[in-house]
């Protein structure tokens, strides 16, 4: 079943550490009321620490801006260029530095260890259609451009800033206009 997610229903919430805000696009709560997985965006307008998410795996992707570097105190510094999903443990939380001070927007997938695991791919429009299959849940977020999504439930058009959630679809076909970018999330229950 495909569910179109209305951007007006996305929730803006404060970061866990109070350092900014995030926009929740979709999430699935576990029996304890905490998210087994969560997908959203976060505006990063200055250098600062990330929130601590012990027991969570983060997939962090810069979708707007020049990129960031993440400093994992004592474990090294990782550059994160645009459109390059980067996976790391939610704790200890890294310190984030903007590249050249340019504000950025991040696309985030957070999965609770032992409950879910997931991947993020950034797809480019203008080429051959991609097929997405084999996940318990698929979340698509149109970063830029117009996209057509085809599944067993029919065709759906996604414009920039729009999203959809598909539960147990046999497969989704996606195609986008030249210059388009789509964040494709595949989530598997553990």
Automatic annotation (TrEMBL):
InterPro entries: RmlC-like_jellyroll, RmlC_Cupin_sf, Uncharacterised_HutD/Ves. Coiled coil: none annotated. This is HutD protein.
